[in-house]
Recover the amino acids of this structure.
């Protein structure tokens, strides 16, 4: 996924779900970590560490960034 698509996706998610109290009941959120270089194993460990600290579970994780250099770890968490 191109970095522009990732940015647009997050903007759309924020616009749609920004102030909607019914969606907040699901308790799902994204978190982006800035890394010098992102690989899947490192991204997964960052996401799982964050999930354990907040009592959530990891639904998705991926590395992304501009120009083919993955510098961001994008995590999607949900709590029960």
């Amino acid at each position: 996924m191109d970095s522009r698509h990732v940015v647009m996706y997050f903007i759309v998610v924020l616009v749609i779900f920004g102030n909607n109290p019914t969606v907040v009941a699901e308790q799902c959120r994204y978190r982006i970590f800035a890394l010098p270089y992102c690989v899947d194993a490192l991204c997964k460990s960052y996401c799982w560490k964050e999930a354990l600290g907040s009592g959530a579970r990891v639904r998705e994780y991926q590395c992304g960034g501009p120009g083919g250099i993955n510098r961001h770890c994008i995590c999607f968490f949900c709590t029960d």
In short: Residues 28 and 78 are 4 Å apart (CA to CA). Residues 3-78 form one domain. The beta strands are 28-34, 57-64, 72-78. Helices lie at 3-17, 21-24, 40-54.
